[in-house]
Specification:
single chain; 165 residues; alpha/beta; Rossmann fold; 46% helix; 19% strand
Length: 165
């Protein structure tokens, strides 16, 4: 069984993430979505909320593809998380050249830590390349319409969170 790990903070999960998840499902038998516990980023949504959002958004993909998606929170090194879930492949999404520079360094470090785990890059769909969770949150905070960037359920969660702030 080929197991892939798609890590991120998913704060919140966007249509760009969903696009990468759907395409990654064609490459692996099981896709583990690693939801990072990254306190340094100061997430808008807590871990449980992010995990639930990812599960909700992935349910339809599982139904449609018949594939298997697991959601796995993690706080350790990415390479250790990959080992923990039995992944032989780490899936990373790329939007632009700036993403590649950071990811290139990460791959080098991960290969030095465990050369048996490959990293596969998937380019975001052209219509989704500009979507970044950070920008989506900023647009929502400033009263803009984020419905083009997230699913209706995530949009509603964002609006509720912004209204409470």
């Amino acid at each position: 069984m080929r197991i892939g790990l798609y890590p991120g903070t998913f704060d919140p999960i966007t249509l760009g993430h969903v696009d990468i998840i759907q395409r990654a499902m064609a490459l692996v038998d099981r896709l583990v979505i690693g939801v990072a516990i990254n306190r340094d980023k100061g997430p808008m949504f807590d871990l449980d909320e992010r995990v639930q959002m990812v599960r909700t958004e992935c349910a339809e993909i599982v139904t449609r593809t018949g594939g298997e998606i697991l959601v796995h929170p993690f706080e350790n090194l990415l390479i250790d998380c990959a080992r923990d879930v039995g992944a032989s492949v780490i899936v990373r999404g790329l939007r632009a050249v700036t993403d590649f520079e950071y990811e290139f360094q990460m791959v080098g470090m991960n290969r030095a830590l465990d050369s048996s785990i490959e990293t596969v890059f998937l380019m975001a769909d052209a219509q989704r390349q500009a979507i970044a969770s950070k920008l989506v949150k900023e647009i929502a905070r400033l009263g803009g319409d984020v419905s083009k960037f997230v699913t209706p359920a995530v949009c509603e969660a964002l609006m509720r969170r912004v209204a409470r702030a």
